[in-house]
Amino acid sequence: MTTPADDVTRIGRRTAQRATVLAALIEAGGFIGARALHASLRTDGAHIGLSTVYRTLGALAEAGRADVVRYRGGERLYRHRPSAEHRHYLLCRACGMSMLIDSDAVETWAEHVARSSGFAEVEHTVELTGLCLDCRSR
To answer: For residues 96 and 31, is the Cβ–Cβ distance under 8 A?
Structure first.
């Protein structure tokens, strides 16, 4: 497993602002949008622009250090990925709770499609949303 300092270095020049964004993402503990993360940083007194938050989250996702899911209206939510392992989540549309899911079947299918088509470097996105038990019972 890498350290947060390693993660910041992976996305370019190590800056205090990038380190602060990464620390806030880790502290969030779950999926969070760029605007919500920015608001949290501002509340904590950090003077970091929204564009810096967006760029840092995008770079972390590109480097495989953040998971990304799309939420209502297409908003992207980010969650720190502590290892390089590719993951999939089930996300509650009402409260935003997320659950790591076993995605072996999806990974096997994606590998099969890549092999049988002759494509290389195939990437995929699988988004599963629904209502968690608590939200369903409300």
So the answer is: yes
* pTM of the model as a whole: 0.75
pLDDT in tens, 21-70: 999 999 998 899 999 999 999 999 999 999 999 999 999 998 888 999 88
- Non-local CB neighbours of 57 within 8 Å, separated by 6+ positions: 21, 25, 34, 37, 66, 76, 78
CA 23 to the chain's CA centroid: 14
Closest CA to 12 of 58, 68, 74: 58
Burial of 91-129, coded b for 16+ CB within 10 Å and e otherwise, reads bbeeebbbeeeebeeeeeebeeeeeeeeeeeeeeeeeee
